[in-house]
Amino acid sequence: MSTATLTPATEADKLIFLVEDDLAVARLIGNVLRDYHFRCEVFHSGSELQRRLRQQVPDLVIVDLGLPDMDGMALVREVRALRRCGVVILTGRGHVGDRVMGLESGADDYIMKPFEPRELVARVRSILRRCDGGQEAPASAGGRVASFAGWRYEVDSYTLIAPDGSEKALSAGEGQMLQRFLERPNRVLPREQLLGQDDMSPYDRSIDVRISRLRRKLEDDSYSPRMIKTVYGAGYLFLSAVSWE
């Protein structure tokens, strides 16, 4: 995993926390991110990361699942509760079940070891763009709060408010996907557009996991959906009128 072919690009001083117990891998990732002008702090255990999170919330956290002191998936769920913080799982576990579980836990992406440094940087940038995108209201909507079918969605905080008033925090990926639906209701949106990726593999099932998570939070029955309908071979359709405040 050489960095010799990388060309640094200026980043807006985004802060990334990395928890990785393998010193060589941690050093490599830290150097790559700093080469690209990210600020990066490295931790070698989950407890170290937890202590630091009490002091500051970063823009993104990269979590190795094989930690010496705690379950990596549990740590991902804890970080996910920070709402606006992006989450990337970096692991040697290649089983499909682990990938699905990681995405179900709220991770925005799942990267396998060994990895190509350029791919890691590209994915980090993609997630940070998604997180930043929620800071601005959609140009066509003129507001930051969407109302639909008795629900409300606050774009700035990724907060979904149910008809009974209860709140549900969304991950950056879920929030951006819901926003894309709300900006274009009653239109079929292709998978690539919903994920914000033009080069998505036809075998990439991460969108299906995120759609499933979003449906559960919207209390939408996947077998008889009222809001998010699967259009086979085309994408997904949001079946509700939407108003913006």
Automatic annotation (TrEMBL):
Boundaries of every OmpR/PhoB-type domain copy: 143-240
Modified residues annotated as 4-aspartylphosphate in this record: 64
Entry-linked SUPFAM superfamilies: C-terminal effector domain of the bipartite response regulators (SSF46894), CheY-like (SSF52172)
Gene3D superfamilies: 3.40.50.2300, 6.10.250.690, Winged helix-like DNA-binding domain superfamily/Winged helix DNA-binding domain
A Pfam family reported for this protein in Swiss-Prot or TrEMBL: Trans_reg_C
PROSITE patterns: OMPR_PHOB (PS51755), RESPONSE_REGULATORY (PS50110)
Domain called Response regulatory: residue spans: 15-128
CDD domains found in the cross-reference section: trans_reg_C
Binding region for DNA: 143-240
Keywords: DNA-binding, Phosphoprotein, Transcription, Transcription regulation, Two-component regulatory system
Name of this chain's protein: Response regulator transcription factor
Species name: Vogesella oryzagri
